[in-house]
Amino acid sequence: MLLHLMVQEELDLPLYQFHDDLTWVRCPECGFDYQKVQLPIQTFSGEDDYKAPWIGKGDLLVIPFVGECGAEWDLCFGFHKGRTATFLRIKKECPQAHLGAQDY
Ligand SMILES: [Zn+2]
């Protein structure tokens, strides 16, 4: 429950709580909950020297998602000076979001 609230508030990622211990990830743009997680194939070594492809100093872990709504986006964790930042990156905008389909 605590992780659910932290992710939802910090990332502004809409989540849908299905059970006390199970929460569905939703499209960050339209809210549709059919989102398939991909293998976290992209890890970048920043060597603690701003070499990874993000604004922080250290390593970056990217977990890609592909939504049945048509969106493609990444959940990212980046290491920076002892702390880990988390953020979302939209790779392909959701075609449903522009149709007002926010009420899945
Ligand atoms: Zn969507």
Bound molecules: zinc ion
| Mean pLDDT across all amino acids | 82
Order of helices and strands: HEEEEEEE
Query: What global shape is seen?
Result: globular
Count of domain modules = 1
Largest beta-sheet details: 5 strands, antiparallel
Supply the number of helical segments.
1
Give the % helix.
Answer: under 10%
The total strand number stands at 7
Please give a handful of descriptors for the protein shown.
104 residues; mainly beta; 5-stranded antiparallel sheet; two-stranded antiparallel sheet; 10% helix; globular; binds zinc ion
Please render the helix and strand layout as text:
Blueprint: H1 2-11, E1 15-19, E2 22-25, E3 35-37, E4 42-44, E5 60-67, E6 72-80, E7 83-92
Describe this structure in words.
The chain is mainly β. It has one domain (2-99). Helix content is 10%, strand content 40%. A hairpin with a 4-residue loop joins strand 5 (60-67) and strand 6 (72-80). The longest helix is centred in the N-terminal third of the chain and has 10 residues, at 2-11. The radius of gyration is 15 Å and the shape is globular. Zinc ion binds next to loops.
What would a concise description of this structure say?
By secondary structure, the chain is mainly beta.
